[in-house]
Records
---
Amino acid sequence: MSRGVEIVRLGEVRPHPTPEAAAPPEPLSHQAPWSAYRVAGKPGAELFPGSRLRRLGRAQAMALCAVKLSLQGGARPMTAQGDEVAVCVGTAWAELGVELDFLENMIRRGEKGARPTKFANSVHNALASQVAMEFNFTGENHSFTHDTLSFEDALWQGRNLLSRGRARRVVVCGVDALTDFLLLRGHLLGDLRPGPAPLRPLQEPEPRTGTLPGEGAAAMVLAPAGESPHALARLAAVVARGPCRRQEISMADEVAFIEEAAAQAGLPPAGFHLLVGANGGSRDASYHEVAQKIAPSGGVGVYRHLTGDYATASALGLALAARTVAAGALPDEVRLVQGSAPGGPTPVLLYHLSRSGNHSALVLSPV
């Protein structure tokens, strides 16, 4: 990749920063409500006609909204069109809520419960397809469903398409919506904590074992380096791996993993600001230990207090990282928990370690 890749546009759909009550699904209706970070109202209501949104699931609406905001965010209209633009969407659960609703209607009402729109929206690649159809992007179209690495896989493929000359621009989106299934799953796995208190990643007064679920979307347009005078940041490294075979997390291995990503980006072992995906739960102790051992020159920040915990929250994390690199300063929403804030243009390394052991390191450098 001789020319490199840059992020030139961003669009975000964030949940409301204050958690709200989330009623338990039917099998657990006797239980007190949990709290969750939800996107307010119907996503995209101010950007798309109601007749369009009525035919979409919640995740699709968030994806379209994030992409449209990214396209509107540039200083000038995007010149690449049609088959010059590829789409890569990462989503762990896609329109699972629509799919379960479709199946439930079929079970309870038989063939009379089959609704063509819900059936079409229930397939995992519906999100990427809707983005392509809405904006007439007829280049390559990719969907990635790989748990907490879904967005990272989409980002890696987007960079790959540009480096091979298979697209002029790539729209990359990470999105997941909160559903009753995910609330039930979180309960069964012991991932949900009681009470309405907002998340305080790496700042909890005592260790917590659960977190609060969330939802959201972020989209970014990637371009070959040097083609846009308004680029926000250079995508310097994308490193993502599944869990190791052993149950215990090795801090030495995690530090080596982060240093490997820094080396791929041409940075010294601690020559960056570290933004981590700590969610206020059981993994916070590991994040804290890694941050202590790395001791990055630019300090350590957290962002999940804005989003709650969901599989592709790293897309919003990368959007915040890009804004940090472009401005040379932490956005007000990011909380600094160790060291000092950037005092000018500095690389940012975004690090995630999930409950399943998936881990990723994404590095952005100044243009």
---
Amino acid sequence: MDLVNKFIGIDIGTYNTKFTDIAVGKKTIQFGHSLVTRTPEYLVQNGRVADPAVLAQFLKQHVRRKGFHTRKALIILNDSLVVTRDIHLPVGKPKEISAMIRADASEYLPFDVSQYTLRHKLLTPAAKTPGSTNYLLTASIKTDLVMDFYSAFRMAGLKPAAVDVTINCMMKYLQRIVKPESQQTVAMVELGATTCKIVILRKGIPVFQQIIANNPRKIDVMLTTLLNMERNQAEEFKIKYGLSFLQEENEDEESKAVGPVIQNQMDLILSDVYKHLNGYCSRNGVTLDRIFLAGGTALMKGLPGYIESAFSIPCSLVCTDESVKAAKPSRRISEDGVDLNQAFPYFVCLAGAAMRGD
């Protein structure tokens, strides 16, 4: 194996935090010890750290007690903190490109551009001919917000090695599993606790991204009321039973009773998702070849088949491939003993974050 760098990947979501040991090589990414645990309420609000010291204590508790040994950390930030833009810029030297990006950013950022950390990546192969243009994705984030995360990680005894954002991680992983030569147009939809995120790849090139405020957490809130459950119990119920009430063999009375409530709320979310997917396809005269689902709610029973039927587009959970895999023997992912290969939708963004050269 060509594994040369080891990290602990940490994705702090509004509802769940994901930890995993990642070994990265030139051609291979291998996941080791992994964990999904609840994010304490109010620890991170709208993607911002409420108190770096409290976050540090939370990280320290799980890293030390749960058997993680690597200290170099990959960090994923919430997209709500990041301003992204797709832009076309003329061919130029690296310093010239950076200057043009800063000049462009100064036109739309609400504060002085000097308060922001700016990053960019090419979305298409680099153009070199004078007079031609490059297509780039730019990202801007307030530097002090990043430093709050850095501070918390350092207080926890971790060494931040790289920072990424969900949308970019989704794009990178989609590019890994769908090769340009396939000529396909594919989408990944991440169903998070507070937002749904969509990226579309066409012939290997990222062409569309969108964040939707309509979110699956509303289902959990409804279930806590209807079934008198705690929040974590409601999420487990949603994933275990989901849309199974639509299947004739389902005999669980509770799931039959609240199944229509889950379906109605899911339909509202999916109608927004479909609007954006169909809008892109209609404007560009293309059809989607496949939808990949990511995020914890993607594991909801019956959801991929339900979407495939509703959208008339093949739909499946995002999964590992020959170059991204779990260590053998497969390690457990959580206190409940869910296998990594079964729950990879939780970890796809950490896989994308590990692809540093992409």
